[in-house]
Write a structure and sequence with these properties.
The protein has 444 residues and is an alpha+beta fold. It has 10 helices and 6 strands, in the order αβααββααβααββααα. The strands form 2 sheets. Strands 2-3-5-6 form a 4-stranded antiparallel β-sheet, with no helix packed on it. The longest helix has 69 residues.
Length: 444
Amino acid sequence: MKRFSLTTLSAAMLGLAFIGQVQAQSLTELYESARAYDASFLSAKLQFDANVAKVDQAVAGLLPSIAFSANLSRSDLDTKYSSAGTSERYFGTRSYGISATQALYRPGNLATYNQGQKQLLQADAVLQAAEQDLMVRLSQAYFDVLASKDSLVLVRAQKTAVAEQLASAKRNFEVGTSTITDTNEAQARYDLSIAQEIAAENDLQVKQLALNTLVGKPSVEPFGFATASALPILKADDMSKWVEASQDTHPTVRSAQMALDVAKLENDKSRAGHKPTLDGFVSFANTTNLAGAATFNTDSRTAFAQAGFTLTVPLFAGFATQNRLKETLALEEKARTDLENAKRTVAQATRAAYLGVVSGLGSVKAFEAAEKSSQSALDSNKLGYQVGVRINIDVLNSQSQLFQTKRDLAKARYDVLLGHLKVRQANGSLKAEDMAAINALLAK
């Protein structure tokens, strides 16, 4: 009687994962590759760089504005006299100047600068969300490949077991100890296992292609999960702490908070439309006349320097400022509502992800117990079939139940590992170090 133990089957799974081990890569190694290749993440990174450049533009309103100008011209003057004929002469002008203006009191410019600082923090939150999304997408693709490999190994092992049962049924029929029904049932189950093997092979190819596309490498071989490793756990009574932390750390919440701050500063800019502005200026100009000018015919040079202040007091702008303030106040209230919605959404997602991990850990324990029970049931049915108290279909059903349980157990383990990353993404605390901790559980 052949026994399909967990240790033997796990070794077979790892053996498949180690095919081409030279090319095998860990989760963290593939993450670095994905950061340099994934189009979605690179788009978010470039958008962040553009936002940084845009934020720097806001500083211009607080710095002086300096300009230099130069001019070179030539003039042709024809003068006609009624009694003395015509007089013609040429002269030129060469000039240059420099001017500088500094805003001394412009509340709108200061509000724009402060908005830039908030927008920089908002851009950083958006980039962090993109990084966390990449970690989860990569981990999902990584574990999908491992789950597909496990499924293929199990299908092939089941096909081998069914083939042995088919051969046994044929022998028993030939000697007259069983009916043709046993042979037909075993043949049908064997044909089904072939179809399942083809489907499993196709699924593995699809999942492998998805992972290759994500990291930009052909034929990536991920390391398998070491079944001897203990799964990380979460305490059921810690959910409130995770939810509470999400209200401050999640990128979506931080981005919404920065959007509210920007909206408040936009109100300040609108109110600045009622306030006066004060600028300081200084300028210098030099003009040289070559061969005179229109009113004289000798060379001359003029230097002119000026310094002062410009005060502008708004009096009436057609109610544009008042209506703009109404608009920004409504947008501020909208931003405040969006922030509250972001907090509620993040809290709900954190609770759901947390409960998913806790439930997943319970499922793993249940599947482990079910695997042992299914193995015992298969052994009992095989023994009963040999002594004539069980029929062939009982053995075949027990085999199917055992291998289905093994597939469910393998997938449940991957779901728990991925769930730990998802719960950290849900509350906004996911970092590369968390992925490294999951990576440490993989076989090297």
